[in-house]
Amino acid sequence: MVQRVTYRRRLSYNTKSNKISVTKTPGGRIVAHRLRKRGSPVSCGDCGIALAGIPHARPAVLKRM
């Protein structure tokens, strides 16, 4: 039978902000790794086209770049 994985945090529903990837450790255990949301591109304020040279990232990550 397949091993089951449980959430490790308080939120126990499969929402957009609570996605996990099932990963196998070197010791053979199956664990849940939390995934972060994908970032949208920084866009031009005038025409709305994505700006070249700036990677897609979440706002908190962009602030640290």
From TrEMBL:
It holds the Pfam family Ribosomal_L34e. GO terms for biological process: translation. It comes from Caulochytrium protostelioides. The keyword Ribosomal protein applies. This is Ribosomal protein L34e. GO terms for molecular function: structural constituent of ribosome. Gene3D superfamilies: 6.20.370.70. Belongs to the eukaryotic ribosomal protein eL34 family. InterPro entries: Ribosomal_eL34, Ribosomal_eL34_CS. PROSITE patterns: RIBOSOMAL_L34E. PANTHER family: 60S RIBOSOMAL PROTEIN L34. Keywords: Ribonucleoprotein, Ribosomal protein. The keyword Ribonucleoprotein applies. One of its GO terms (cellular component) is ribonucleoprotein complex.
